[in-house]
Structure formats: C-alpha cells, structure tokens
Amino acid sequence: MTLKLPLFSVNGVLGAAISPLDRGFAYGDGVFETCRIHRGKIPLWSFHLDRLLQGAMRLGIPVAIDLLEEYRDQLLIQGQAEIQNAGVLKIILTRGVGGRGYKMPDEVQPTYCLGLYSGADLHSKQYLEGVRLRVCNHRLARNSLLAGMKHLNRLEYILARNEWCDEVDEGLLLDTEGQVIEATVSNLFAVVDGCLITPDLTYAGVSGIMRRLIIEQLAPALKLQTRVEHIDLNIVSAADELFLCNSVFGVWPVKALLLESPLNLALGPVTLAVQVSLERYLQP
Q1: Which domain holds residue 227?
Q2: Which pairs with CB-CB distance under 8 Å and at least 24 residues apart come from 52-57?
Q3: Which residues are catalytic?
C-alpha cells in the first residue's frame, strides 16, 4: 500500500519519533541533506552522499552507508506513487541519544531520520521568469571549522529569512567582513565577461550540491570558465547576469537585485545555457 506524503522514518521504522534525548534535537549535533527526486530517482545522490559523509566525518559521527541506503529505498517504495514526477527526500543524521550536557557519548549510535515530501516541477515561475533578490541585514559568522558543512544549526538562516515576507524570493547573505557568501537556501553565481564567479566558502556558507555540479560538470561541458573567489556587493552589482542554484529548485535567474538603487537584470544567455545543461543532465 502506498501512503500519502509526507512520510517519515526513524532508523527504518515508519512513523517513529525522535527521542527527546537525541543530540540532534537537543543540540543540533548532526548534518542533513535535502535531495530532489526527479522521475522517481535521485540523480545527484552520489554528491549528496559524499557531502553527508564528509560532514559526518568532520563531526566524528559514524555512518553505515548500506543501512542509510536501505532506509532510503524503503521510504521511496512506500511513497513511490506520489513521487513519480517530483519529490524531496530529506535525510537527518544525528549523533543519536546521549545524556544531558555537551560531552559526546563514549559510544555513538547514530539516528537516521528520513522524510519524504511532495515536490514541484522544475519549470517553476521562478525558474522561467527569474527572481527578486534582497540583501539581508543579518551577517553570517566566520568559522572555518563549520564552513561548507550542512550541519543542523540553521539559526542564522532562520533569522535572515525572517527579515521579509513574500515581496521577494530570496535573501543574499554577507559575512561579518562584508563578503558575499550565498543566499538563505541557495548558492550564488555571477556572470562577468562570460565567466562564472561564485563566492569562496572557506569561512562561512554551505557548499551546495548544485553549485558543485555546475563547477565540476555543467560549466566545463559548456566551456565556461569558473572562478571561486572572495567577492563583495560591488562585484555582484556590476555582474552581467546573476543566478541562484539549489539541488531542489535547480537554477533561478536573478531579475532584480534590491539595493538602494534597485538593479534590474536581463535573463541572460549564460544562465539559460546552464539551465539547459542541467535539464539534459537530469534526463534518465
């Protein structure tokens, strides 16, 4: 029997709950991945698994890959009728149950919490027409020990997202040194003289899966040069094109950057080429 979404499993048990003593619940002690399901498959699974493993290794959380993939497949089968066209799989990996206090337990039994959600078609209004991007007042802290990782503490992003309602689509985040880092749920690319430039994430931000795909595969296939470097708002505001990327929604062109003097941007040919390359990549 196929069940209605959303569906959740904890350590392979459908409908189970997280313990109040779980360190992910109590302290944000863990990592997570949010994966787009495209035509019943997760085309970027290897990238998601690699980032999950890297983050878990940095935090010292052991991962049983075969068990994780077993739990994943069980959930996908349960919701298969609902995700034939699009869906979202969220994986939360925590250090598991532990006592009160920050000290890590001597023996770690990780918690695997998986959620299956309905998804939207890739060709959303934002994908086709572009988005309005504001600059958030909140600044990201610089911390090279956590930078790049998709850990469970999202308070900075929650505070930034709370700065606006629905008049814009996304918020651009700078760090405490004034460097552009990313948006609240996506990474940023600027097109300057035909070159793709994306912010350096050594000290803050999340190394996105779609960002990696573009750098390693889509841009080289299009013969586009890509540079990862420190950039500020002056570079962003002078760009020929801007786009945001995320493994769930794909590539969103930026049609307006809301500075003191709003900057209107055309839906440019480089962004369109990246979108087309992504769609080809997603074909079964």
Answers
A1: 125-282
A2: 52/91, 52/93, 54/149, 55/31, 55/149, 55/150, 55/151, 56/31, 56/93
A3: 34, 150, 182
